[in-house]
Write a structure and sequence with these properties.
Distance between the termini: 22 Å
Number of helices: 6
CATH architecture of the largest domain: Alpha-Beta Complex
Mean pLDDT: 76
CATH topology of the largest domain: Ribosomal Protein L22, Chain A
Radius of gyration: 20 Å
Shape: globular
Structural class: alpha+beta
Largest sheet: 4 strands, mixed
CATH class of the largest domain: Alpha Beta
Number of strands: 8
Number of domains: 2
C-alpha cells in the first residue's frame, strides 16, 4: 500500500492544491567571507551551497575557534590529517553559513543530534532546516525553512575495474555485494534520520 501525495484544498474544499515546489538556488562558495555575508531565505526556497577547501580561502586556526569542544574532539578522532582538515572545513563552513542566515555568531551556534547522529540547531531557529554532506574535500550544504531536506555527495572513482567485479565467483564480486548491502543499510538509516 502506498501513501498518496499530500494534497491541500482551498477554503471551499473544491479545488485540490499541491504544496508549492521549492525554488532551488545554488551557490558556489569561493571564500568564507562570501559565506559570512548576510543571506535571506524565502519560505519557498532551498539554498544549496557547494565548496571545496582547495578552491576556498580557508584559515584553519580561525575555523578551529568556531568549533565546539565536542566538535574538536570528534575532529581529532579522524586518523588522517586530510580527514581532520575536511571535517574542520565542513563544520566551519556550516557554522558560518547558518550564522549568516540567522544573524548570529558562528561560534555561538549550538547543535543537538538525533538518535541517528543527524545534527540540528539546539535552539529555536525559526524553522531553519539544514543538511550537509562531504566527500574527498568537497562540501555540499542545503538550507531550507520549514522543509525537511537532505543532500549527499560522493566521489566517483574511476579506478575500479567493473568487468572484474561482474565476474561470477570473483573475490571482488563478494566484496562489492557486501559493500552494496552496507551502503543500502546506511541509506535506509540515513533516510529514517532525515524524516525525524
Amino acid at each position: 500500500m502506498s501513501c498518496p501525495d499530500p494534497v491541500m484544498s482551498d477554503r471551499a474544499g473544491l479545488t485540490p492544491l499541491r504544496p508549492a515546489e521549492p525554488r532551488i538556488v545554488t551557490y558556489e562558495c569561493s571564500s568564507d567571507a562570501m559565506a559570512a555575508e548576510p543571506h535571506a531565505l524565502g519560505a519557498d526556497e532551498v539554498h544549496i551551497w557547494y565548496a571545496g577547501p582547495l578552491q576556498t580561502a580557508f584559515d584553519e586556526p580561525a575555523f578551529r575557534k568556531l568549533l565546539s569542544v565536542d566538535e574538536l574532539a570528534r575532529m581529532m578522532r579522524f586518523r588522517f590529517v586530510d580527514d581532520r582538515r575536511n571535517f574542520l572545513f565542513g563544520r566551519g563552513m556550516l557554522r558560518i553559513l547558518l550564522a549568516s542566515y540567522l544573524g548570529a555568531s558562528p561560534a555561538e551556534l549550538l547543535f543537538a543530534y538525533s538518535a541517528y547522529g543527524k545534527p540540528g540547531l539546539a535552539t529555536s531557529s525559526g524553522g531553519f532546516e539544514f543538511n550537509l554532506s562531504h566527500s574527498n574535500g568537497t562540501l555540499l550544504i542545503a538550507i531550507s525553512q520549514r522543509r525537511k531536506i537532505g543532500v549527499d555527495i560522493e566521489k566517483i572513482r574511476h579506478d575500479i575495474e567493473i568487468n572484474e567485479i561482474a565476474e561470477p565467483g570473483s573475490k571482488r564480486a563478494g566484496m562489492v555485494f557486501r559493500f552494496h548491502f552496507q551502503l543500502s543499510m546506511y541509506w535506509m538509516f540515513r533516510q529514517m534520520a532525515q524524516s525525524n
